[in-house]
Amino acid sequence: MRLLVTGGAGFIGSEFVRLTLREHPEDSVVVLDKLTYAGNERNLDSVRNDPRFRFVRGDIADAGMVSRLATDCDVIVNFAAESHVDRSLEAPGQFIQTDVYGTYVLLEAARSAKHKRFLQVSTDEVYGDVATGRSAETDPLSPRSPYSASKAGGEMLIWAYRSSYGFPAIITRGSNTYGHNQYPEKIIPLFITNAIDNQPLPIYGDGSAVRDYIFVEDHCRGIDTALRKGAVGENYNIGFGGETSGVAVADTILAAFGKPDSLKLHVQDRLGHDRRYAVDTAKLRSLGWAPRHDFTQGMELTVRWYVENQAWWRPLKSGEFWDFYQRNYKPLPAATV
Ligand code: NAD
Ligand code: TYD
Question: Can you tell me the distance from the alpha carbon of 278 to that of 250, in angstroms, rounded to the nearest whole number?
Answer without folding.
Answer: 20
